[in-house]
Amino acid sequence: MRENNYRKWLSLVAMSLGVFMGLLDVTVVNVALPTMQKAFNESFNSLQWVLNAYTLVFAVTLLIVSKMGDMYGRKKIFIASLILFVIASVVNGMASSLLILDIGRGVQAVGGAGMMSLSMALVASNFDGKQRGVALGILGSVIGLSSASGPLVGGLLVDAFGWPSIFYVNLPVGIIAVIMTAVFVKETPSYGRDQKIDFLGMLFSAATLFSAIYGLIQKETNTSWAWTDMRVAGWLILAVVLLIAFIIIESKVEAPMMNLKMFKHINFVGSVIVAFALGSGIYAFSTYLTVLMQNYIGWSAFDTGVHQLAMSVWSLVLGPVVGILGNRFSKKWMIVVGMILGGIGFILLINNLSVDMGFKQLWLTLVFVGIANGIVNPVLNSAGMEGVAPHEMGMASGLLNVFRQFGTSFGVVILGMVEANRYNSYFEDHLSAVKMPAQAAAGLHKAIINDGPFSGHQIAFSERLSKVPFAHDFQQVVIKAFDHGMVGVSLTAAVIVLIGAAGAIFFMRDAKTTI
């Protein structure tokens, strides 16, 4: 008995290594982009596809690999995903062109999707009773920690060894994870081995997610395009049409890729709502928090990572504790409390924004948002699995991750629009107060509006502009414009997480009835 228990926890270590490696690679690349830009001599917009290729393929393949795991054994597909991820990582580190790197990132995302979605399902099937809640809580803490520690790890690796090191580091970690998974993780039954593969359902699910995520990416990278622009709206409309077609197909197929009856389970619907709110509120907000720290406060990538430990450390500390508490108290109300704490954290930032902002004004927000993520993420994994039949756990896990990922993409776009609109409005209203030649005002107005909030500080504090008589007043306007935008971003994020809390209140249940 003790030996079996020992093997269980080592299996959790193996799966945690895979998840940590996969999610870390999502955020760690952000820090390396400036170095990559110099190495490849490409524009920043072109470099964005190093991120977007991973995001897009990751979301598209999540459900497919989840279903394959349910059908053929989650351990087999998890190990295959690990191996694919490691091979693609090595290719990325050796990439001689941006095209090769983009392709490698897409392949890497397939492996990352398998590791992420199947890890939760494997934990749920390798553990039972109270141990399952604790194990899922620990895995949730790993998920939160890996996402939040990206800037710190990335800054260390890039500064010390160059950008390829962020990919090469996956080789030793991946080899250890593969060996430990093979030895310690217990395989799940191959549910539906004799069933026909629902290729049509897989095709339409992938096409639906691709259209939706790509439409949001188009809007994110081209903020001047209206939602009604067919280069944006066309993709989103196509996503709706494909979704309707997918639902019709799945309702008629004998062995569908996705059991639509899962959405009749009100607790699962509540978990999906929370997952979307967590992604679009807390995870998407992290993008703008990093910009505030690096571009406007002036911290380096490494310093930003160090300061963000005040937020990320809670995922590590609270994960196991929350897993234990989830066995004794209502998961639903723990999630509600966590989401409300996140909302409070966003509101606190509004009151503390200033032109001379530092860690003293920021730490409370980091703590509240960190605690919120540390509570919600682990409990959500466990709550989302309750009532789900064993043969559906892979798909349920995949769906939770899809909605979290889609929520993040949606949130980045929505928060970006709020930031840009409020930033531009403040800048245009207050630029006239800066005493400068009309020609200079026109040129700077065009540059700031075209380059957007993320680059405004770089323009305002450039060496050339800093020497002109009106530099200080102009710089103050730019900083205050960004802060004005951050007020809107914080309010929007607070509303989103509070909607998530409301979704938990009205939809989530603590009863454990199987679908």
TrEMBL record:
Transmembrane portions of the chain: 12-34, 46-65, 77-101, 107-127, 134-153, 165-185, 197-217, 232-253, 265-285, 305-326, 333-350, 362-380, 401-418, 486-508
Localization annotation: Cell membrane
Presence of keyword Hydrolase: no
Molecular function GO terms recorded: transmembrane transporter activity
Keywords: Cell membrane, Membrane, Transmembrane, Transmembrane helix, Transport
InterPro entries xrefs: EmrB-like, MFS, MFS_dom, MFS_trans_sf
Entry membrane topology: Multi-pass membrane protein
Domain annotation Major facilitator superfamily (MFS) profile: ranges: 11-512
Main localization of the protein described in the UniProt heading: membrane
CC terms in the record's Gene Ontology section: plasma membrane
PANTHER family in UniProt: MAJOR FACILITATOR SUPERFAMILY MULTIDRUG TRANSPORTER MFSC
Family: Belongs to the major facilitator superfamily. EmrB family.
Name of this chain's protein: Drug:H+ antiporter-2 (14 Spanner) (DHA2) family drug resistance MFS transporter
Naturally occurring in which organism (per UniProt): Enterococcus devriesei
